[in-house]
Amino acid sequence: MILAIDIGNTNIGVGIFQEKELIKNWKIRTEREKTCDEYEIVLLTLLSLSGMNAEDIKSVVLSSVVPPLTPVFQDLSQSLFRIKPLVVGPGLKTGMAILYENPMEVGADRVVAAVAAFEKHGGPCIVVDFGTATTFDAVSSKGEYLGGAIAPGIQISAEALYLKTAKLPHIEIKKPRKAIGRTTVSSMQSGLYFGYVGLVSNIIEEIKRELGTKASVISTGGFAAQISHEVNSIDFHEPYLALEGLRILHERSRE
């Protein structure tokens, strides 16, 4: 079995693959202060509740956008599974040319998602990842990573309204019944929800225009299920795209 770990700013995605099949997956809250021992307890508990144990894991692959947690999970892999993990980063052959001006600047999560999207849907394609930040990544018909856009995530936008104003409350992010809000909360929800749909739609159209050809659009990430059906230009929703990408990179590294 392959253990795939995707360390994000808000959540850590964990998946167990039996060959190419994702048989189990979990989300763990990202806590930078947690120790290796504490994360070990969490993982062992999740495995045990699923009828598995540490000996079932034969390979570990991980990506991280939280640098302090990368060595924590490297140590965890060594101590818990006796396995040196494959870490997505500089020097790893992904099979995808990175055409960024400085390839070192591209987040591991963006590369992993782009690899999986191209593998599953071909190119050109656009990946929209609704995470802590919302990222837009363009892949050419040849499977080259072209670059993209980074926008504040919808949760960050909601937090900014609450933290940077004196009277606006902390709100739940959900679609309001009407765009014209009759309360402060419904007005904020309208601005956030419909405004975000507009932001996503517009950036996708701009990227498509620059690509100059028809492109598949794939959504993933925490808020993707909530927002994707509002954006007509999104063709596919892939909730486990990052984990799939990690599995693909693991296979390529073995080849």
From TrEMBL:
Q: Name the keywords, alphabetized.
A: ATP-binding, Coenzyme A biosynthesis, Cytoplasm, Kinase, Nucleotide-binding, Potassium, Transferase
GO CC annotation, single: cytoplasm
Tell me where in or outside the cell this protein is found: Cytoplasm
What cofactor does its activity depend on?
Answer: K(+)
Asked if Nucleotide-binding is a keyword of the record, the answer is yes
* Family in the record: Belongs to the type III pantothenate kinase family.
GO BP terms? coenzyme A biosynthetic process
Q: Is this entry keyworded Disulfide bond?
A: no
Pfam families of this UniProt entry?
Pan_kinase
Q: HAMAP family under this entry?
A: Pantothen_kinase_3
Q: How does it assemble?
A: Homodimer.
What species was this sequence derived from? Answer: marine sediment metagenome
Instruction: Please give the name of this protein.
Output: Type III pantothenate kinase
What GO molecular function annotation could you give as one example from this UniProt entry? ATP binding
